[in-house]
What does this fold into?
Amino acid sequence: MEKIAILGTGYVGLVTGAGLADFGNHVTCVDLDESKIETLRSGKIPFYEFSLGEVVERNVREKRLSFTSDLQKAIKGARTILIAVGTPPGKGGEADLSQVFGAARTIAEQMTSYKLVVQKSTVPVGTGEKVHKLIAEVLKKRGKNTPFDVASNPEFLREGSAVEDFMRPDRVVIGTWSKKAEQILSEIYRPLYLSETPMIKTNVQTAELIKYASNAFLATKISFINEMANICEAVGGNVRTVARGMGLDGRIGPKFLHAGPGYGGSCFPKDTLALADFSKKIGVPSKIVGATIDVNKRQRLKMQEKVESLVGNLKGKEIAVLGLSFKPQTDDVRDSVAIEMIKGMQRKGATIRAFDPIAMETAAKEVRNVEFSEDAYAAAKGADALVIATEWNEFRQLDMNKIKKLLRSPKVVDCRNIYDPEKMRAAGFQYLSVGRAMNEGFSGSSEAKKPARKKKK
Ligand code: UGA
It folds into this structure.
C-alpha cells in the first residue's frame, strides 16, 4: 500500500485517484479550489463520468480516498506525489505548464523526506527534466539534499469510459530514471499484473513521447479517414465501406476510422497543437501532425457548409442541433464541433434550438441565445433543418416519420453517419452525411451504380 497525493482534482486527477485507491493504495486528492473539495467531500462529482461516483464513494467509505485543500499536509503524508494539474493550450498552441511548475515548486519547498514526483498531466517531452532541475534548484536554495525522483506515468483514459480504461488498460507506461522510482510505480500498479496488463518501462522522455505519439496517431487516423470521406464525396464512394475495407487488414485495424465532423474534446486538439509546437521548437517539425491539424480544421468547417448547401442562406433560418458534447457519454463540450457549428450558424443569422441528454448545462455556459429543448422532437419542431452533431445512442433510433412531420422542411445533416442515406432519401428527406454517396450526379446506391460518365461535347 503506497501513500499517494494527487495534485489536481480535474478529470485525470480524480479518475486516477479513485482508481489507485481501488487498487488498495491510500490516496489524498488535493485541490487549492476549496469549493471543489467541499463538493467532493459532500459526495458529489463536479463533472459527469460514467460509474466514477460509485468508485469514489466506495473508496471514501473504506477510508482509502480523501480530499483536502491542505497541500502541505498532503505532501507530508505521501511518498508518491502525482501531478495532475491542467496544461491548457497557450497562445501559440504550446502547452501552458505554469501549473505543473507551480506544483513542482511547492513540493520542493515543502518536502522533508524522499518523494517520487510523477507527472500525470500531458506535458511536452523534456518537461520531466525541467521539473527535476526545478526541484533540485529549490532544494539547493533551501540548503537541503533531500532525495527525490521524477517520473512520467501518462494516462490513456477516454472520457465516458475512463473508469473502465483505468481498471483494464491496454498498457501502463512507466517512465523513470531510477530503479527505486520504477519499483514504487510498479508496486502501485501491481493489481494489473494479475490481468497481465503490459507494462512499458522506459525513461521519462520516452514515456512523455508515447503519450503524444498515441494521441497524435489516433488524431491522424481520424483526419486520414476524413480526407478519404471527402474523396468519396467527390467520386461517389462510401467511406464506411472504405474504412471497413481498410480496417479488416490487421495491420491497420478498424478503430478510429469513423469519418465525421473532425475530432474535438480536451485532448486531441490540444495535444496535436502542442506536439506540432514543440517538435518545431526542437528542430524536428512533425509534418504529419501539422497536416492532421489542418485537415481537422477544414473538416469542422465543412459541417456548416453542408447545412448551408441544404437550406441556403442561414439568415432567419431555424436550425435544430442534436448533441452538444464533443462525443457521447460525457457532458464535456470543450472543443466540441457542435458548439463551433452553433456559433458559426448564429453568426450567419440562424436561430438555434438544441438538445443533448447530458451536456445542456455545460453548453449553456459556452453559447448564447440557444433555446434548449426537452428532447430531440421538441428541438426539431418547426426547424428548417436538423443537424445530428453527436452520436448519442438515443439519436440512433429516432422516429423519422415524426421528425419529418415536425420539421418545416425535411432536411437532415448527419455529421456522424448514424442513418442510412438511402433509407433517409426514400423516406423523403434531403439528407447529407459524411463521405457517403453525396455526389448528386447519380442517385441511389453509390456502390451499386457506376458514376455517370461526363458527356462528350
Ligand atoms: C482521447 C484518447 O482516446 C485517450 O486515449 C486519451 O487518454 C485522451 O484523449 C487524453 O489524452 O486524455 P477522448 O478525448 O476522451 O480520449 O476521446 P476519444 O474517444 O478519443 O475521441 C476524441 C475525438 O475524436 C472525438 O471528437 C470523437 O468524436 C472523435 N473521433 C473518434 C472521430 O471523429 N472518429 C473516430 O473514429 C474516433
Remarks:
- Residues 122, 155-159, 215, 218, 222, 256-258, 260, 263-265, 267-268, 326-327 surround uridine-5'-diphosphate-glucuronic acid (CB under 6 Å).
- The first strand starts at residue 3 and ends at 7.
